[in-house]
Amino acid sequence: MGSTSAISLCSHPKFQLRRRFDSDGSKSDLFGYRAPGVYLPPVVPFRRRCLVVKSNGGGSRRPASSRRVYRESQSVSSVVAPVQQLASFFAPAASFFAVTFVMWKLVEKLLVPKKGRMTSSVDSKAPEQGGMKWSISAGSNLLSGFGAKIERESKLKLNDFAKELRSFSSVDLSGRNFGDEGLFFLSESLGYNQTAEEVSFAANGITATGIKAFDGVLQANIMLKTLNLSGNAIGDDGVKLLCDILANNNGIQKLQLNSTDVGDEGAKAIAELLKTNSSLRVVELNNNMIDYSGFTSLAGALLENNTLRNLHLKGNYGGALGANALAKGLEGNKSLRELHLHGNSIGDEGVNALMSGLALHKGKLTLLDIGNNSISARGAFHVGGYIKKTKSLLWLNLYMNDIGDEGAGHIADALKQNRTITTIDLGGNNIHAEGVTALAEALKDNSVITFLEVGYNPIGPDGVKALSEVLKFNGNIETLKLGWCQIGAKGAEFIADMLKYNTTIRVLDLRANGLRNEGASCLARSLKVVNEALTSLDLGFNEIRDDGAFAISQALKANEDVTVTSLNLSSNFLTKFGQSALTDARDHVYEMSEKEINIFF
Questions:
Q1: Listed residue (270, 291, 223, 217) closest to 248, CA to CA
Q2: DSSP 270-330
Q3: Phi, psi at residue 67, to the nearest 5°?
Q4: Predicted TM-score of the model (pTM)
Q5: Between 439 and 73, where is the model more confident?
Q6: Can you give the pLDDT at residue 227?
Q7: Which of 282, 227, 290, 222 lies closest to 262, judged by CA?
Q8: Mean pLDDT for the chain?
Q9: What radius of gyration, in Å, describes the C-alpha atoms of the chain?
């Protein structure tokens, strides 16, 4: 009995997928597989071409056992297909991680040093090995040879600094940032040094610890006269150590401790040193944190010290109480010549006490700096009273206060009776035309004042007119500062007219006055006239353009006997044409008279 059978030669049996109904009556997803707690997404079957071989060895129908085997293979295939889909997804991922792991191990083996060559923070005694050091901190994975190179270069520089200390009388080692360790190395060059007289260690990152380097060194050095430690945060502790060392030093005459974080305790240590030290002439303590208590200690030292000449206390916190304490110390002092109290907020009350103390001062004070101290017209009245009495004061600074026109009148009245002050600074005091007119009247009969600063005051054209009229034929002013005075082109006309007749003014500052081309042209006309005195003219920040530059250049060429050697036109609106004209004028003057003019653009 013949039968027909089909034998598939492909790897998977051929099956047909139909939409089925689950036992609960719901439809299952097409090609999907659902089991309790498991759901696999549908998979589209891939039909394979199969070779079928038919034979006629039996009947035309397959037995029931064959159909049962076929159904079982179909049920197995419906589960295997999604599993194979998952396998096809996870297999590449697993391969990627395996390859990455192998590559990581290979790189680690090539780059990371062996354990025997790793530096250990625990075993600090182990000698450093060659090769590369590794660290988790940024920028620290450097070759050990690089660190050694830096260390060698640092030692070479320190050796050069040490040679300078042994070779020159004045040595400036400021801003080298060698720190405490470098100072310990360099201090050895100061011991028994017979050459260096002035040494600056300013701004080098030195702390109180580094001051110990001077112990045993400064005691043995008798040549050093000036020691500058400014800009190093040595604080009160460092100052105390330094004062203990200097107690046995008889050579240093000038000690500079500006911006060193010195407070009241440090000022007290310096005061105790001044009571016994007879060599110090100048002590600078500017821009520190000295308060009323520190001022009181220094005032006590002034009563006992008879050698100190200059005391610098700018930028501290003395206030009115500190000024009052200093006044009491000044009453019994005979040696002080310069007192710098700029920026201490002493106010009218403080300046009143200070002037009273100075009036009783038995010495000859030549310089008084009380600028930026919130002094008003009332305080200026007390200053004027001292000006009338003093027979020694040469230099007075009232810069950046607020004395106004009334205060300027008090100062002007005092100057009429004073014949010692040569330099006076009244800049930034809110003085108008009325105040400067009073000052101009005081200059008529005063031939002593040679330096007058009234810049940063809104005196305007009227104020400069009053001043110019007096200075045409009176006074002995050599340096006149009129920057930021709002004089404009009209004021420039009065200045230009005054310069035609004045024979004393050498330095003239007219910065930031809005002169423009008109004002520059007025000044140019005066430069054509022979002026044997004027050597420096500052016209910066005046909105001058090329036309003004052309006028000035023509004036320089026309005057063969021009005496100007410095001309500042920086921060104006000059193009290359204006600059070229001024450069040609400079070259022309040099060719004709061999006089050099420095022109600044």
A1: 217
A2: HHHHHHH-SS--EEE--SS---HHHHHHHHHHHHH-SS--EEE-TTS--HHHHHHHHHHHH
A3: -65, -35
A4: 0.75
A5: 439
A6: 97
A7: 290
A8: 83
A9: 46
